[in-house]
Design brief:
The protein has helices spanning 26-37, 67-85, 115-121, 123-126; strands at 41-47, 58-63, 91-93, 100-104, 108-113, 131-135. The chain has a domain at 40-128: Beta Polymerase, domain 2 (2-Layer Sandwich). The chain contains 4 helices and 6 strands. By secondary structure, it is of the alpha+beta class.
């Protein structure tokens, strides 16, 4: 797997600053569009930048109605992010069971969940200190 370019921007002892992403970043927009293209539902982004304990700047959470759709969304997100941003994920998990697919791009982590798993784990509730935004089909045309 290729090294993420974001890893080259981690702070050093010399005081350099990390480059943070936002909702207008190319990788962020690519992920949202890929999920929408594969008919992911209830897409929410959680802005975790103000939470010191957070492992990423953003979580993007969506629902898929079957194990096949979980895999399809995960595969398409990876393909689109690589095509648009030339980035491979640092890590991905959950494709075999298909209940919860996770794609970790270090600064943004994508969670593709079946409805029961999403209700059980309540990520939006757990990370409610960060701001959340719903991404509906209207954004797809932007």
């Amino acid at each position: 797997m290729a090294t993420l370019s974001v890893l080259n921007k981690i702070p050093t002892t010399t005081g350099s600053r990390i480059t943070r992403i936002n909702r207008n970043s190319k990788i962020f927009k690519s992920i949202i569009k890929a999920i929408q293209d594969k008919k992911g539902e209830n897409i929410v982004s959680l802005d975790l930048r103000s939470i010191p304990e957070a492992s990423a700047d953003f979580f993007i959470v969506c629902e898929a109605t079957s194990t096949t759709q979980v895999r399809a969304i995960c595969d398409f997100v990876e393909a689109q992010v690589f095509e648009v941003c030339a980035e491979n994920p640092y890590k991905h998990e959950g494709r075999i069971t298909g209940q919860w697919g996770l794609i970790d791009y270090v600064t943004v982590v994508v969670h593709v969940m079946q409805p029961d798993a999403r209700k059980f784990y309540k990520l939006e509730e757990m990370w409610s200190d960060g701001g959340s935004v719903m991404h509906d089909e209207i954004e797809k045309s932007k």
